Structure formats: C-alpha cells, structure tokens
Amino acid sequence: MKVTAAHIDAIAAGSSFLATGGGGDPYVGALLAKTFLETFGAVDLIPLERLDDEATVIAVGGIGAPLISLEKLPNGGEQSWALEALERHIGRTADALIAFEVGGVNSLLTFVAAARRGLPVVDADGMGRALPEMQMTTFSIHGVNGTPMAVVDEHGNSAVVTAQDTETAERLTRNIALAMGGQCTSAESAMTGATVKQAAIPGTIGLCHRIGGALTANRNDTPGFLAELTELMAPTAFGCVTRLMDGKVVDVLRRTEGGFDVGTIVLQRLDRAGPDMRISFQNEFLLALEDSALRASVPDLICIVDSETTRPITSDRIRYGQRVAVIAIGAPEVYRSDRALEAVGPRCFGFDVDYVPLEHLL
Amino acid sequence: MKVTAAHIDAIAAGSSFLATGGGGDPYVGALLAKTFLETFGAVDLIPLERLDDEATVIAVGGIGAPLISLEKLPNGGEQSWALEALERHIGRTADALIAFEVGGVNSLLTFVAAARRGLPVVDADGMGRALPEMQMTTFSIHGVNGTPMAVVDEHGNSAVVTAQDTETAERLTRNIALAMGGQCTSAESAMTGATVKQAAIPGTIGLCHRIGGALTANRNDTPGFLAELTELMAPTAFGCVTRLMDGKVVDVLRRTEGGFDVGTIVLQRLDRAGPDMRISFQNEFLLALEDSALRASVPDLICIVDSETTRPITSDRIRYGQRVAVIAIGAPEVYRSDRALEAVGPRCFGFDVDYVPLEHLL
C-alpha cells in the first residue's frame, strides 16, 4: 500500500481510537503528515513479512505529556533530526521506520519522517495501542534494549542516551522530556528486520486505516460502528470487542505530573441504570471501575468515543458534559503473559488490582 | 610539575577551600585520585602557556548535589567513560584535560581521568572556585558552548547532549543528573588550546596545592593561615583576602532540591560584638548578610574553615555547634564584568541584591 495525504485522516482517526485516550492528539500530526506526504511523495507501507531480515529498522515518535503537545507545536524537522542523530551514533542508516506505538499522533509522526527520508514504514508497531512508558513496548518485552536512542526538541537541542535497560532509558528520557518543556521527539530501538518480525504487533497501521474508515462511515451511529469494529478486529491479534457503557462526563480530575497527564474521569450512565464509572488515566485510559467492581483494565484497551460523532476522545481533551460511549477491546495475547503483565499490568501504574482478562469480566 | 599521590591531600584541601563550601566533598575523590596515580603513574601538570594552540582539551568533573555524592559512591571508571563517550561523538581524542571547576572534588576527578589515560592536566580551570551551574564557567562567559557533552553514571548509563546554548545544556544535564540518582559525571567543553588560554583562569591547580600546604602548616592557627593565604593570593588573579567573622553555627537549614543542596546557615559571633551572620548557599556559599547589611556575595568567594583545625567546611558537612572562621576573597576580574555578572551575580541565584565588590564593602 502507498500511503498518501488522502489516507491520513482515516489513519489519524483509527490511531486515536486505538490510543485509548493517549498517544497525543493527532490534529497537528495529521497536518504535518499530509504536508510532508504532499511535498515529498507517498510512503510505502510494507507488511511485516516483506521486511528484509537484515534491514535496519528504527522506531520514531513523541515522548511526553499529550496536553503539552497541544500548545508546544513542532517545526516538522524533529523526527528527521532524531533519526539522523541516532544514525550518526550507531553508524548505520535506517532501511525502514516503525511506530513504537500506533496510538494517537505517533503513527503519523512516523510518516512525517518516512516521507522526508523516502523510507518505507512497516505495517506494525510496538504496542498495538498507546501506553505511557518505553518498557511497555512489545519490543522491550521481547528483550530489545531500546537504546541507544536520540531525543530532540524543536530548537535543535538533542541527547543520545545509552542505558543498561529500558526502564532506565525511560527514566532518563522522561527527565530530558521534562527539561525540553514536557515533550520531545525520539528515534529509538534500532532493530534488524528479523527482530522486528518477532517483536512487533503486525498489521496495526492498516488496521488503524480501516478503523478510521469505520468511524467516518458511522458518524452518529455508535451501534453501527461497533458492529463494523467487531468485524474488523476478528482476524487480528486483538480479543473481544464490547461496549462497557453510554454515559455523560460528570467530573474530570487532571494534572500534568512527571511528564504525564494523570487523572480520573467520572461517567454517569445515560440510563441511570447503574453506578457511575470511574476511569483512571496516565496519558492512556487504564482502569474502569463501577464502584469497586473492575470492568476493564490495562493492557486491555479502554477506548472512549463521542456518542454523537463517534470521534475518539483523548484524555487531554475530555471535558465535563460530553456524551460518550466506552468501548473495551481485549489486548493481543503478547500482552497477557506473566512477563508482559510485569511491565504493563494495572500494578505498574499504582493500581491495587490484578489484571483480569476482559472476556472473564463480561 | 609531576603530580603524584603525595600531592593529592594538599590539592584536595586547597580545592575544598576555594570551593566555597561546594564542589563536592573531596574525601572519596582524593582516595580515587591517589589510587589512580599510584596505579597508572604520575600526571604532568602543565602551565597554560605551554599548551599547544591546536591541542584538544576536554573538561571533566561531577555534576549534581554534593550531599548525594557522600553516599552514592563512584566506581572510578566514570571519568574515563564520559571522556570516551564524548571523544567517540566528536571524533577526536583529548590531548589534555582541564577541571571545569577547581573547587572541591572536581580538580581531583580530573587527575583520576588523566592518570587512567596518561594525559596531562592543564594548571588552570573554568571557575577559579566552584559554582553550581554550567553557564557560570569562564569558558561559557567567553562564549564557549559546553556541548557536545557526555554524562554517565556508575552503572554505565550515558547521554551525549548537544544544546544550542550552555543554559539549555545545564537544564538538560541537571535533569539527567536527577534521573541518574542526583549526581553524574561529565566530559564537556572540548576546546582548542588557543581557546583555553583565553577562557580559563590560570594557575589554579598549583594554587590549590599551595593553599592546601598553608592549611596543613597552620593547623589550629587561623591568623597564621590567613597571613600565608594573603601572600599566596597576592600574585594571582584573585582580589583581596579578608576575615569576615569568627562564629559558631547556631542554625542550619538545608534541603536537596532540583539537583542542588540549598539552604542557609546562621553564625553567632564568638565575641557577641555584632549581629548574627546568615550565609545562603546553593551547593556553594553565595551571600553573607549581617541583618540586612551585605558583607560579601558571589562571585566573590566566601570560604568557611573550622576555627580549630583550619579545615575547609563544605555546605553538606556544616553542622550545628561548629566554631568557624569566615574568609572572603575578591573574585578574579573576569567574573566582575557586566556580562559575567549576568551569569554569576547574586540575582542569578534569586537574591534581590546587586553585586558590590568585596573591597568596597570593607
């Protein structure tokens, strides 16, 4: 598939849906991606299996608090700068790029860099969603040390970080993101094609494009979207799709802390036929409770769409009074192993709750 | 001069004196320097004027809160790791090393790296004292961008930072130091010999050695030390030497904040013939007030020694009940220009006070 500017809105909508509220608002990223694809030409989206085993694949994307990226605008050069800084450091150039998370703006930023450099993008990513920290990628869970990694800001300041493990890399680069104003751009996890085939979740960019199409085709028709979504997810690595509730946002508690947007939203059921739902987030929506009953938790996906427009709503944009549908999707199996849950289970985010697969909670 | 392990105690004592309370406690650094000089051989201390104009000179030292370095012990490899990381990045190797600040442990750490690598150390530094931030070096005041710079921790994690200006480099590396546990080791400010001749304060390592000798020779004799110190400082770039007071520490307020030790000490005059003195510090002693009367301020040096032993006391070691002498020394002229005072004057540390040269306050 050749990705052009015409594909970007659908990819952006689908990415934002799979981002479970985080991953950065895609508005500015979509403008950038369209401009770069129009200026430098279409980008090849290549299936994972077509990737050469010897290829050098580099992951790019943004790090930081999504709320900040709404006001701290990029200049469009950051992805290339980060990529070049990493390439200089490792002494190899990228043969293909991959999004470390499909969610939100990060899939789009991959196309910005790819268009600028004339490189293909792999139809896969390292999360199948968005998650707030680097050790939560499937790359890291498969044992890939994400460093050396290069981070840059919009002024051309940069740092190339080499860490003994991905948790340390996360801590170092999160603090650098803070010093760069709360948000920065990264090139990381240089891998061989063979490793990417093991460590990435396949087909997620194409999936975003199809989900985005379904979102657009079913404006004002959440049941229609849900039916189409269920069909789209069936052949993928993801699990079951379910609508947790329809509700109204009656409270939003949100603060920007340690380089993250952190908080809780409270949803009142439109039919008043049950208790309020509290959804906690750290960039991404992570835990949905009704009173003390667990309804869904990370790594399963908790996605929120506007009931009227079916637009995905991000944690930095959600606000009092919105009518929303909460949709949960089972995580790919790779995130359900004991090892993966040590990196992405609810306890990793400070919740005193064990992970229970979504299908057991229904 | 060939520096051997036998010189280190005197250099450490003199460095600690010129460090004005900061620059890191020299105890561990002196042990390291002695071990490395004994293991790898003596190090040439070369006068600034003997430096080749084309030589590559790199500054090394520690960054962070001195209090933390009392418990977060180095493994001795950090200086070499930082140096090698920077050399790899810039594609040149060092011909000589220089301390970015003579103060406290940093002069000693320069000898650790120099011994390990068989490199000479330049008899000069970038502060003639210690100061808490990178844009406060005479290198930076002379327009040297301190980056690329490499910072490492004791586990082998590293970051190579490139910044548009030294203030940004300071902010980025300070945050990295925080992520590395509050303290890290740096190699920075790669300069030509010609630049170092313009930008460094000459003769400061040798001066530390002589001050250390005077401190040792005058144990229990503060007036004797003061007389010898005045003689030693006369031919240097430093200004007048004066004893501000003899007092007892009656209060210490200290917190570790933003990667610095920050606080105030209160000294009661031993003769009770005047008001208490309040000395504020950010790693280094920066401002001495009696009631609201300014007695001395940064960039002039405020040095505190134990009245009984003439040992310099650092801001992380000072404690209730100590009997101390407060000695002030005029800063070298390079720190008294308007441009320099914009980087190192009292207002840079949040004090609502203009700099008044020490000799005008007497």
Strand content of chain A: 25-35%
Low-confidence stretches of chain A: none
- Look at the helices and sheets of chain A and give the structural class: alpha+beta
CATH class designation of the largest domain in chain A: Alpha Beta
Query: Domains counted in the coordinates of chain A: how many?
Result: 2
- Give the averaged pLDDT of chain A, no decimals: 95
SSE topology string of chain A: EHHEEHHEHEHEEHEHEHHEEEEEEEHH
Question: Using only CA atoms, what is the Rg of chain A?
Answer: 19 Å
Tell me about this structure.
The structure is a homodimer of 362-residue chains. Chain A is an alpha+beta fold and 362 residues long. Chain A folds into two domains: 2-202, CV3147-like domain (CV3147-like fold), CATH 3.40.1610; 219-361, CV3147-like (Beta Barrel). The first copy, chain A, is 33% helix and 29% strand. In chain A, the strands form two sheets. In chain A, strands 1, 2, 3, 4, 5, 6, 7, 8 and 9 form a nine-stranded mixed β-sheet that branches. In chain A, α1 (5-18) packs antiparallel against α2 (26-40), α1 (5-18) crosses α9 and α9 (204-217) runs antiparallel to α10 (222-233). The longest helix of chain A is centred in the first third of the chain and has 15 residues, at 26-40. Chain A is globular and about 60 Å long. The two termini of chain A are 37 Å apart. The mean pLDDT of chain A is 95. Chain A binds chain B through residues 85, 89, 155-164, 168, 171-172, 174-176, 178-180, and chain B through 85, 89, 155-164, 168, 171-172, 174-176, 178-180. β7 (158-162) of chain A pairs antiparallel with β7 (158-162) of chain B, so a sheet runs across the interface.
